[in-house]
Design goal:
Oligomer: single chain
Number of strands: 14
Strand content: 15-25%
Helix content: 25-40%
CATH topology of the largest domain: Rossmann fold
Radius of gyration: 19 Å
CATH class of the largest domain: Alpha Beta
């Protein structure tokens, strides 16, 4: 029998097709592997509220990595523990204050699944409303009461680099920041040292699965650490070049069932659907 593996899946651009659905082929492939005793988990930059539908759709029974590792928990087993590593609220408010010196559209603070909008914006609210989160709208310097899991700054493409330069100069030791992929011009900020690899490592240890038997799939810069950490890092064909360079192998794109194609070959699965 094949030794038990941990299969860690990014969502957007990896497990999900461009229309945000999971293909029947991929779903059947993952189900077949779970039936064989392999463990399948999600590792995403999304909060839990917007990844829970896919967790349920796949019938997962594993812990999940949310917010790029800043929030790791088990949706079905409370006793597994909750690992929540938010940034300091003072740092968050200092960043909001500094943004007054730059051009930006909005700032959103996420405290696990609760949302705080600096300005009212119906279009943004519509994007973030999945999972019916509690929403608070108003100046974050006044309304934000808890240390945020993540801070999102929405700005024009031309202003993003200036804001990121300031973040690197003023807060390099306490935060990490990265750009969201196209078409969003959003800077995502989390506590320094948090990434998907940190979360996956916690899960793997709890399942007694060695690093050599971890397979991680990703496509963007927030996947780099886990692609490098995993025994087998698999970049998607649609992924950025640096992800392909860091990974051990590149599979087909998310639109071509890249996850399923790799796993079917790796585990010699036939006649899945």
């Amino acid at each position: 029998m094949t030794e038990k593996h941990l299969i860690a899946l990014d969502l957007d651009g990896t497990l999900l097709r461009d229309d945000k659905t999971i293909s029947a082929n991929t779903k059947a492939t993952l189900n077949a592997l779970m039936q064989q005793g392999h463990q399948v988990m999600i590792a995403t930059g999304r909060p839990f509220r917007s990844s829970e539908p896919y967790y349920k759709e796949l019938g997962l029974q594993t812990p999940i990595v949310n917010f790029n590792g800043a929030f790791v928990h088990h949706p079905l087993v409370a006793s597994w523990g909750i690992f929540h590593n938010p940034m300091d609220i003072k740092v968050a408010k200092d960043i909001v204050e500094a943004c007054d010196h730059f051009s930006f559209h909005n700032i959103i603070a996420e405290v696990q699944d609760d949302l705080y909008f600096h300005y009212h914006d119906e279009r943004l609210i519509d994007i973030f409303k999945l999972g019916n989160p509690k929403m608070t709208i108003g100046d974050l310097r006044q309304y934000l009461q808890y240390s945020p899991t993540s801070l999102l700054i929405q700005a024009d493409e031309n202003d993003v680099s200036n804001i990121r330069s300031h973040l690197s100069e003023a807060h390099a030791e306490v935060i990490d920041h990265r750009n969201w992929g196209h078409p969003f011009h959003i800077i995502e900020i989390i506590k320094s040292g948090m990434n998907k690899a940190v979360g996956i490592n916690k899960v793997a240890q709890s399942l007694n699965i060695p690093k050599s038997r971890i397979i991680a799939f990703g496509d963007e810069d927030n996947d780099l650490e886990m692609l490098e950490f995993a025994g087998t890092g698999v970049a998607m064909g649609n992924g950025i070049d640096i992800a392909k360079n860091v990974a051990n192998i590149t599979t087909l794109s998310n639109e071509e069932d890249g996850v399923a194609v790799f796993l079917q070959e790796k585990f010699n699965l036939k006649n899945i659907i």
